[in-house]
Design brief:
- 67% of the residues lie in helices and 0% in strands.
- It is mainly α.
- It has a domain of 60 residues.
- It contains 5 helices and no strands.
- Pfam families: NADH-u_ox-rdase.
- InterPro entries: NADH-Q_oxidrdct_subunit, NADH-UbQ_OxRdtase_su21_N.
- Keywords: Membrane, Transmembrane, Transmembrane helix.
Length: 100
């Protein structure tokens, strides 16, 4: 069974790295990726706090919501960064930076 998505879908933009490693993908985060990560985390902390008001467990609920939001925000930013490196999302900055 072939699990390589690039075998089924061809990139629309120039490919910078067909299989980017974790460190390169995280180093490729741009300002919008960090903004998305912190926005999702902040919203999750707020939702966690508000959902813990009624049973009076605001602190643990807020921390749990924040951790879930942090993980989700990181995965979303990572997906966008890797998608740009693999050529699935617009990547003009990455092409200019890595194709020298």
């Amino acid at each position: 069974m072939n699990t390589d998505i690039t075998a089924a879908v061809k990139p629309e933009y120039p490919v910078v790295d067909r299989n980017p490693p974790f460190t390169k993908t995280v180093a490729n985060f741009n300002t919008l990726d960090y903004l998305r990560l912190f926005t999702i985390t902040g919203v999750s902390v707020t939702v966690g706090y508000l959902s813990g008001i009624k049973p009076n467990i605001r602190g643990p609920s807020m921390v749990t919501g924040g951790l879930i939001g942090l993980m989700g925000g990181f995965m979303y930013a990572y997906q966008n960064s890797a998608g740009r490196l693999m050529g699935f999302f617009p990547n003009n900055d990455e092409v200019a930076r890595y194709k020298k």
